[in-house]
Amino acid sequence: MTWLSFQNRLRIAVESADAFSYLHYAVFIPILHRDIKSANILLDDYYTTKIVDFGASRLRPFDQADMSSLIIPGYLDPEAIQMGLSDKSDVYSFGVVLAELLKAIDLTLPNKEKSLAPYFIASMKENRLFQTLHHRVLKEGSLDQLNAMGELVVRCLNIKR
């Protein structure tokens, strides 16, 4: 993803969020995607976002918050393993995608620190967000944009529903 400009990364984030918001709130019976990950967010020649792979998706009637679980390592809300999948599980998975758009994982870290969600949250808590961002993101984004994106990622990755 080093070739993606910060503006294109922002556009991918916004278009993806719009699509998932539509699934959760704009349709008569909400739809949980249940498999949000970067591999299921495709780009056309103009970097327009296309959401794919609805094989794990489920309809969620308004009175049903809990669904049978589908384990998506790295993208799955840890609380979903115990409580079942919900729209919050999709939000958590989307937070991991946002973190991926902002940075590249440091492969020199020990395995326990290579999980992107906890690593990103720790970098925000320890006030070292700018040390973890991809160089192109850091160069092209304003400090306000980067801080806002970092806060949004942390809010999406909040494990409390």
Strand share of the residues? 5-15%
Annotation field: number of helices? 7
* Corresponding CATH superfamily: Transferase(Phosphotransferase) domain 1
Q: Characterize the main sheet.
A: 2 strands, antiparallel
CATH topology: Transferase(Phosphotransferase), domain 1
Provide a brief overview of the structure.
With 161 residues, the protein is mainly alpha-helical.
List the defining traits of the structure above.
two-stranded antiparallel ribbon, two-stranded antiparallel sheet, Transferase(Phosphotransferase), domain 1, mainly alpha, 161 residues, globular, 4 strands
Characterise the protein shown here:
With about 160 residues, the protein is mainly alpha-helical. The chain has a single domain, classed as Transferase(Phosphotransferase), domain 1 (Orthogonal Bundle), CATH 1.10.510. Helices cover about 50% and strands about 5% of the residues. The protein has seven helices and four strands. Strands 1-4 form a two-stranded antiparallel ribbon. It has a two-stranded antiparallel sheet with strand order 2-3. α1 (about 5-25) runs antiparallel to α3 (about 85-100), α3 runs antiparallel to α7 and α4 crosses α7. The longest helix is centred in the first third of the chain and has 21 residues, at about 5-25. It is globular and about 40 Å long.
